[in-house]
Design goal:
- It is a single chain.
- The chain is mainly α and about 90 residues long.
- It is elongated, with a radius of gyration of 26 Å.
Length: about 90
């Protein structure tokens, strides 16, 4: 069994009503308030990060993406000139 080391603190201030609500919810969940808040905050954070960092494609769009990877287009003339200037300057 792996034990995680908790090496940082997170301080949260709230009013009495919110604290009572968190105490009650944590008791129903049979865990400490810290564990309850941390677990729920982590779940929400993971969900939010996933929503902003993941890309979901339809099957049609995914196939179009794979086809574009297999057959890339030609670079635009301006991009080609930029590559040539870069190659000349980096030598």
């Amino acid at each position: 069994m792996t034990t995680l080391t908790k090496d940082t603190r997170l301080h949260i201030r709230c009013d009495h009503e919110i604290r009572r609500l968190l105490d009650k919810a944590a008791a129903y969940a049979h865990m400490s308030v810290s564990e309850f808040v941390l677990r729920n905050a982590v779940e929400q954070a993971q969900s939010l990060v996933q929503a902003h960092e993941a890309i979901t494609l339809t099957e049609h769009d995914f196939n179009a993406f794979l086809n574009a990877l297999d057959r890339p287009g030609q670079p635009a003339p301006a991009l080609q000139r930029a590559f040539e200037r870069h190659a000349a300057q980096v030598r």
